[in-house]
Amino acid sequence: MTTPTMAAVSAQRRFPGESEQVSQVRTWVDGLLPGDCPRRADVAVVVSELVTNALVHSVSGMGGSFAVRAAIDATSVELSVADQGPRPIPAAREPDASGWGLAVIVAELVDEIRTTITPAGRTTWCRLTWPNGRS
């Protein structure tokens, strides 16, 4: 007996560069996931961190916008967040108070990650996988 395979889903959406959009993106991506996605909680954390990073560290968070793409199939989800490039003056932060999202939290949860920088901005892409379609 074979297990039915999930049809691939791919969606992209642009959001305004406002902090309340973190929860909007999380809800939108969650709605794209299959009901039995075994990494739902990890996906929520990862997309929240990627969006927060775009808002805090790029022009997107200074009244701009950012784009989120999600591609989902039976064994993985690929997420990318494209921002509008670095702020002219880096965001101030307390030492040891923040800055761990991308380097530690996201890197620990994803199976692959990469960042591409172009004159138009920065895109961070990652993939989360699970075995045999479902765990």
From TrEMBL:
Keywords: Kinase, Serine/threonine-protein kinase, Transferase. InterPro entries: Anti-sigma-factor_SerPK, HATPase_C_sf, HATPase_dom. SUPFAM superfamilies: ATPase domain of HSP90 chaperone/DNA topoisomerase II/histidine kinase. Pfam families: HATPase_c_2. Residues 15-125 form the Histidine kinase/HSP90-like ATPase domain. Gene3D superfamilies: Histidine kinase-like ATPase, C-terminal domain (3.30.565.10). One of its GO terms (molecular function) is protein serine/threonine kinase activity. It comes from the Bacteria. CDD domains: HATPase_RsbW-like. This is Histidine kinase/HSP90-like ATPase domain-containing protein. It comes from Planobispora rosea.
